[in-house]
Amino acid sequence: MEAMSNTCFLVSMNLLLVLFFLLKPNHTMASDRLSLGQSLSGKQTLISNDGTFALGFFSPGNSSKFYIGIWYNKLPGQTIIWVANRETPTSDPTTSKLQISDLGELVLLNSSKSLIWSSNSTSKATTAILLDTGNLVLRNDSTSEVDLWQSFAHPTDTCMPGGWLAVDKITGEYTKLTSWKNSEDPAPGFFAESMDPDGSNQYVLIWNGSNIYWTSGIWNGHYFANVPGTSDRTIFNLSFVDDKQRKFSSYLIKDKSFITRFVVDSDGQGKQWYWLSDRQQWQTVYTQPLAHCDVYSLCGPFGICDAKNLDSICGCPEGFQPASLKEWALSDWSLGCSRKTQLQCEADGFLPMDNLRLPAKPKSFKLRRYEECRDACLNDCSCTAYSYDNVCSIWNGGIRNLQQLHEGDNGGRSIYLRLAASDLPSSSGSGAKVIKVVLSSVAGVVAILFIAYCLMKVYERTKRAQTLRKLDNSLVQFSYTDLRRITRNFSEKLGSGGFGSVFKGTLPNSNQVAVKKLEGLRQGEKQFRAEVTALGSIQHVNLVRLYGFCSGGNERLLVYEYMPKGSLDAHLFLNESTELDWELRFQIILGTARGLAYLHEECRECIVHCDVKPDNVLLDAEFNPKVSDLGMAKLIGRDFSKVLTTMRGTIGYLAPEWIAGMPITPKVDVYSFGMMVFEVISGKRNNMHSEDGSMAFYPFWAAKKVVEGGSIVSLLDARLKGVVDLEQVTRVSRIACWCIQDLESQRPSMGQIVQILEGALDVNEPPLPLSLQNLAESV
Ligand SMILES: *[C@@H]1O[C@H](CO)[C@@H](O)[C@H](O)[C@H]1NC(C)=O
Ligand SMILES: *[C@@H]1O[C@H](CO)[C@@H](O)[C@H](O)[C@H]1NC(C)=O
Ligand SMILES: *[C@@H]1O[C@H](CO)[C@@H](O)[C@H](O)[C@H]1NC(C)=O
Ligand SMILES: *[C@@H]1O[C@H](CO)[C@@H](O)[C@H](O)[C@H]1NC(C)=O
Ligand SMILES: *[C@@H]1O[C@H](CO)[C@@H](O)[C@H](O)[C@H]1NC(C)=O
Ligand SMILES: *[C@@H]1O[C@H](CO)[C@@H](O)[C@H](O)[C@H]1NC(C)=O
């Protein structure tokens, strides 16, 4: 609706239309454009043609300042993708004006008509148009297809599909993303992402324009080496162009209903977000760098980064306090910690701190004794810390990137931090502990709200009669009659396993579901409900979503999202199927690893799946993998292992410690995952594989090949016809081999596996797992 454009008024002198405009509240302009002579103020907005995006004044969080920004018009909340005047807010939007100036620039004037922001565009424009991609463009009406200026070329912290990161080889200008200072201040923060300033074909995350702390890896023709996830052409179309004028990287999304954006967050991480429409919330697909403490100067000067501290990742050492509590409360730690007492120079002392990763680039020199190192620091009033390890290392000024390590981490060192004598703990022995500043973070509040919400839901459900209820974003409780109707009296069986049979069903809203009838369940109804509720709260792109359940009398049923391509085993082990090329197989391995890593490491309560195998990896219409049957171990309880071991085929996936009846840790999933990966590579069940006609346990044979450095090509499924990325196959085979090590401590965690698959970590040559030989003989 181009309500405000003159042509519209001229053409339609229609009374109804005029009335419509008169009656319309004046806070929407209901137009996607702003033309010369018009202005935008107060609550007025531009809405893109299809309604996806809106532009107008907004005020972030509790801030009292106003900015011109673009946000998703149809999504709840206000997710900002672009800010015009990020450094020059206005306090009164009703008297401020966004308009096209006489010079043809887009400008923002404040109450006293002073210019506070300008597009600074050089070509004279007559119209600003908000496109359906979220791009704001300036055009001249008579040459309307030419963008004289566009917001995509001047992004703030977000790169939208269709947007780009570029370097202009002629002007030397970079199109880069710069983080907000914090959630309430869009002014440029310390973190930015851009093409490599050194000119290589990669992009980098950089702190304050000078310290690179993450690199994408060099473009290899298909993807950037350290972010192979983006090679997935089923979703992303990533491109890299290097011509005479520009070098740039851009991405497009194939499926227009897939809402996604890439953001350099004010916590220093680059994050790809996407919108979960059924949960009505944003979810990250990947973050870079993965380890949050790897972000340069995340905790500022004298701050200590501790990834394991859930209250606040940044803390201050003893004798220090947050430099600004206000910013600290907004998770903006960039100002770091300040001393409680100023230093006195000669009268100062040192606070010993243990098991830290120390900042790079100290002044180092060889000294024979620890005392000499200490004196060297004490006698230099600008020295703030020293560390001695045959070499004396000395730091001056504000120390950045101190990182707290924990038991089991390698490379921990001790450092001695200079403090005013009065701030030293009275018994300043070597055991002095770092005091963490604990502030109730936003995360904490959310967690409490979430728990309260869950309790409320459970309470509500137990009170309700058993009829079909559609509650948004939460589990649906079905009655048995409902499920009988939905599955047309359990007529279409999708499969059956150790825990019961699965049937296809169609909900009244015509969504398809898979209904699982649990068998052999002796759990009480109350406990079942509690477990199921917990399961319902676990949601991840690579985990099959639980929609609802039915629990009445002796019946226990679970209702899951329906996965059109069925389970992975059908695609792997049926000869006719040729659909799984290497790229898809790699994506399936990676997605499965992500799902399990989420279960192990990111859920509120760590869950061990206990039954990882191709039969439990389901594929959606685009072959994205989702792990199914999670939480069965808890639901089925003690009978679980009996069910598993009596199921043929499963035994080959069980870790030795499980078979030996020892306590179970997440590493049993790692073991099964490794076994599964071998099957994805070979396209055959492990225990049916033979070499030279003689029966041999495939993983043993494959592991030998990997360890002895034989030709990996002979491991491959013949259907792949050798069309693979050999480097990836090597990487994946090595991971699989590490996963099936006899000692669980030698196996990597699922989180590490994801990092290795994504190329963020390297993987060494694994040793040969010996117990495989026994297994090989017994199968
Ligand atoms: C705004 O301030 C109030 C009171 O200080 C606080 O409870 C609330 O969490 C803040 N909201 C945001 C979005 O920061
Ligand atoms: C408008 O901006 C000018 C220049 O930045 C400033 O001097 C003036 O105080 C502002 N007026 C108001 C009402 O904020
Ligand atoms: C436009 O130019 C002015 C003057 O050179 C400068 O102060 C301002 O930051 C520029 N604005 C943008 C958005 O680049
Ligand atoms: C728009 O473009 C046309 C053709 O290039 C030019 O003649 C005209 O002056 C431009 N209009 C403005 C307002 O710059
Ligand atoms: C960031 O860089 C600027 C310009 O190089 C420099 O002046 C400033 O001191 C740096 N900030 C910090 C906190 O190091
Ligand atoms: C991917 O994007 C590039 C450039 O934007 C385009 O030329 C190409 O056709 C696209 N490929 C696919 C498969 O969509």
UniProtKB/TrEMBL annotation:
Residues 345-420 form the Apple domain. It is a single-pass type I membrane protein. It is found in: Cell membrane. Residues 31-151 form the Bulb-type lectin domain. GO terms for cellular component: plasma membrane. Residues 1-30 form the signal peptide. Its main location: membrane. Residues 488-761 form the Protein kinase domain. This is Receptor-like serine/threonine-protein kinase. It comes from Vanilla planifolia.
